[in-house]
Design brief:
Blueprint: H1 2-10, H2 15-22, H3 28-102, H4 118-144
Helix pairs in contact: 1-3, 3-4
């Protein structure tokens, strides 16, 4: 409104016409300055609300990132525990069977593993060793009889 008054007055429109249209005017420049200050206030309020929205978006992003990191950490921990268990249990069974065979108990069963990795290979070698030892003991028994 202030710009309109200033432009109308500058274009030769009489103050009486301006007063009828806009009311009593002390100085059109004051009205323009007031209008400009109001616009600056609106811009400032808009900028402040925009910053709050950005701050809220950043906080939401941080919360989602923290939640995802927590889920990934839990999955990694669970996977680590599972892998440790799946490796240590067969090794423990093989160790116990080797102790039994070492003490002369050939009736112990060597645990079979379905895996083709090192643990599966170790299990197969233990079974072969058990068979070889049983065969040697049978030969010794038959020779001494």
């Amino acid at each position: 409104m202030g710009k309109e008054i200033f432009l109308l007055k500058d274009s030769g429109v009489s103050e009486q016409v301006l007063e009828q249209k806009f009311g009593q005017l002390d100085d059109p420049l004051d009205a323009f300055t007031e209008e400009l200050n109001n616009e600056e206030l609106l811009i400032s309020q808009y900028a402040e609300s925009s910053l709050m929205v950005v701050k809220d978006d950043i906080q939401l992003t941080l919360n989602v990132t923290a939640a995802l990191a927590s889920v990934v950490a839990e999955i990694a921990t669970g996977t680590g525990i599972y892998n440790t268990y799946s490796i240590s249990k067969p090794i423990s069974k093989l160790r116990n069977a080797a102790r039994e065979i070492g003490s002369g108990n050939f009736d112990v069963e060597i645990p079979a593993t379905k895996s083709a990795d090192e643990i599966g290979e170790l299990s197969a070698q233990f079974r072969k060793m058990k068979e070889d030892l049983m065969h040697k003991e049978e030969m010794q028994t038959s020779l001494s009889a």
